[in-house]
Amino acid sequence: MPQLAIDKDFLSRYAKLDKRIQKAVDDALHKFAEVYYAGGHLEKVTDARDPRVRTLRITLNYRGVVVAQSEDTYLLVTVLPHDEAYAYIRSRRFSVNHALGVLEVRDESALESFTPALEELAAADPARLFDHISDADLIRLGVDAESLPIVRLLTSEAHLEAMAKMLPGGQYDALVALASGMTPEEAWAEVAKNLVEEVAPDHIDLDDLTAAIRRSPGQAVFVEGPEGLQSMLDAAFDLWRVFLHPLQRRIAYRPSFNGPAMVTGGAGTGKTVTALHRVAHLTSRYESGPPQVLLTTFTRTLDAALRSQVELLITDPAQRERVDVRNLDRVAYEVVSHECGAGPAFPNARDLEDLWDEAGAERGLSGAFLLAEWEQVILAQDLRTERAYVDAARRGRGSRLSVDQKRSVWRAVLEATKHMATANQWTFTQVAAAAAEILERTGDRRYEHVVVDEAQDLHPAKWRLIRALAAEGTDDLFIAGDPHQRIYDHRVSLASLGVHVRGRSRKLTVSYRSTQEILSWAVQVLGAAPATGLDDLEDSLDTYSSPLHGRRPTVRGFSERAAELDALAEQVRKWIDQGVEAGSIGIAGRSRKVTEAAAARLKEDAIDCGALATGPGVRVGTMHAMKGLEFRCVAVVGVEHGIVPHESQIADSIEDPTSHAHGLQRERNLLFVSCTRARDTLYVSYSGAPSPFLPAQ
Ligand SMILES: Nc1ncnc2c1ncn2[C@@H]1O[C@H](COP(=O)(O)OP(=O)(O)OP(=O)(O)O)[C@@H](O)[C@H]1O
C-alpha cells in the first residue's frame, strides 16, 4: 500500500493561502489520495533537478510539489504559484543524509551560483573557516561529497550564514556548531539532539526516502488514511500539533518514565507543546473510567489556554474525556469543599490584612508581616507546632527573630487563623495545604498521572498537593518549567518535597517563538547569575537559540511619560496599519498605574484595548500577567529606574542580602518573561533614567 507524507513547508504555506485556493488544495489532495497508488494526477517535469519530483495541479495558477519514491512513497513538499513551483523544482534535490539518516533538501542552483563568489573570496584569503577540521570529521558529521568542496572554500561565518537556506538543515547545523568553536565531538552531540534515533551509517540506505522521512518527524510526517489527511490539513494553523522537534517527540512519546519526569528550557522552546503531547500519549492508554490524567497549571487564564489546546490536539472525544484540565487552586478547592461540605470563601486582600493587623496589633507585629510569615514559612514548610516553627529556618525572610519573638508570632498566627476558620475565610495557599493534607490522610489518589505546566512558580503547598494527587510510580508526574521565568518568591527544591526528577530531566533549547535577535537581547536582561532549577542543579541558557530571524528590539527613552505614551500610540498604530491584528499586539508595564495610563492613551487615539488574555482589541496588562502568553508584537513600557526593578519588592540589601539578591533576580526574570512573549517585534520604552536591567545600547 503506498504511503503519503506531508512536509512542514507544505502545511505552513497552505495555512497562508487564501480560502479559495485552500479549497482547491483540499480537493486536489483528496482526489490524489484516492488514486495516488496509480500515480494519477501527477505530472513529470522534464528539467527537474531531482528526477523523483512531480507536480500536482491545484488550479490553473497553483502547483503542489511532490517527491515520488518509486510507486510507494509520496511526499507533499510544498505548494506554490505555478512559476515559483517550477523554479523550485529546477533547483531542489532531495537526499538521505549518509551520517544522520534524515531527509534533506538542498537548493543546488543557489549553491552553484554562490560558489564562484566563494572561490573569489577564498583566492584572496588563504585561511579558511574549517582548516582545523579534517575531511573525515566533516563527513562523520554529515557533510557530504557534494557540500564538502564548497564548505572548504568558506572563509567566514557570515558566508556560512548566507548558505542557511541552500544547504541541507542537518549539515548546516553541524557547520554552525563547528564554526562556534565546538570540537567535532561536541558538534556531534549538538546535531544528535535533533535526531529521533542515532543510526550506524552502514544501516542507512541512501535510496530509502521512507525510512528517512520516519527519522525526520520535525520535517515531515506520514498521513494515516483519508481522515488523517483531513486532520493534517486542519492542523495547518497549529503546526505544533503535527511537527514535533525530535527531542520534543522523544520526551512526549517515550513509552514511560519510571518516576517523575521534567522538561525545562528557555522561553518559547515548546515545553507546553511537549506537555500537551505527553497528555495525548498518556490518555491514549485508557478507554474508560474517570479521567486518569490531570493537566494543571497555576492560573485560571493559563488553564483556559491549555484547555483549548487539548481540544485541538486530542480530537477523539472519548480520549479527551480521559483528561481533566484545571488549575491547582480549583483542584484544591474541590478537595476541600468535598471534605468540609462547603466551599471555602476568599476575603479580599484589604479585609484579610485588617484581620491579621488585629491579631498582630497587641504584639507590635504588622498584618502584612504575619501573613507573609504564615504563608512563606509556616505553610511552606508545613509547620504544625510551635516547637517546629521555633526550630525552623526562615530563609529569605529578613531580619532574624529571637525565640521569644517567634513564640509571639506563632500565637498571633494561631489567633488570626482561628478567626479565619470561624468566618470560613481562606487563602489560596492555605486551601492547597489543606487539600494536600486531606489527600495524604485519606490516601485518595485522584489521578494516575499529573502533568504540570509553568511549574517554576508553585508554592511548596501546591507541590505537596501535586504529590498527593497521584500515587508514586511510573509516569506519576510530568513537569514543565523554566527557572529563568520564576517571577514569584517560591524557591522550591523538588527533592525536598519527595519529587525526584534526577536522571529524568530533559532540556529543550530551540525557540519556536521569538527571533534570535529578540532572544539574544532578552537573555542579557537576565544578568549573569545562573538560575537554580527545581532539581537543585544550576541552569544556564548557553545553548538556547532560535532559527528565526528579524529586526533587533527597539529601545526608546523619553523625558516624560506623556511623550513616551504618545510614541507608544504611534507605534501601535503603525503595527495595525502594517496588518498586525489588534489581538496579536501585547503591551505590558510593571505596575497597573503604567498599564492604565498606556490603555488610556491608546483609547484617546481610538485604539481599542482589553485585558491581556481575553481582549478585546490590543492586549494590555501587567508584566506578571504576560506569563505563558504570546503576541506577534510586544511593547514593554515604563522600563525605567525606580519602576523596574520595583523598589517595594526588593528587600533591604543590608538587612537581608540573600532576599535582596533573589528579589532583584525575580525582577530581571519578570522583564525577561515580558520581552520573550514577542514573536516578531519587541519595542521597549522608558521615561527619565532607563532601568539598570536594560542592556547597554
Ligand atoms: N514543534 C513545534 N512546531 C511548531 N511550533 C511549535 C513547536 N513547538 C512549539 N511551537 C510553538 O512555539 C511557541 C512556544 O511554544 P510553548 O508555548 O510550548 O513554549 P514554552 O517553552 O512553554 O514557552 P514559555 O516558557 O515561554 O511559556 C508556540 O507558539 C508553539 O505553538
Automatic annotation (TrEMBL):
- What are the record keywords, sorted? ATP-binding, Helicase, Hydrolase, Isomerase, Nucleotide-binding
Under Enzyme Commission nomenclature, its number is: 5.6.2.4
Give a Pfam family name. UvrD_C
UvrD-like helicase ATP-binding domain segment(s):
244-515
What EC class does the entry list?
A: isomerase
One annotated GO molecular function is:
helicase activity
Superkingdom assignment: Bacteria
Binding sites annotated in the UniProt record for ATP = G265, G266, A267, G268, T269, G270, K271, T272
**UniProt catalytic activity:** Couples ATP hydrolysis with the unwinding of duplex DNA by translocating in the 3'-5' direction; ATP + H2O = ADP + phosphate + H(+)
What name has this protein been given in UniProt? Answer: DNA 3'-5' helicase
Q: Which organism was this protein described from?
A: Streptomonospora halophila
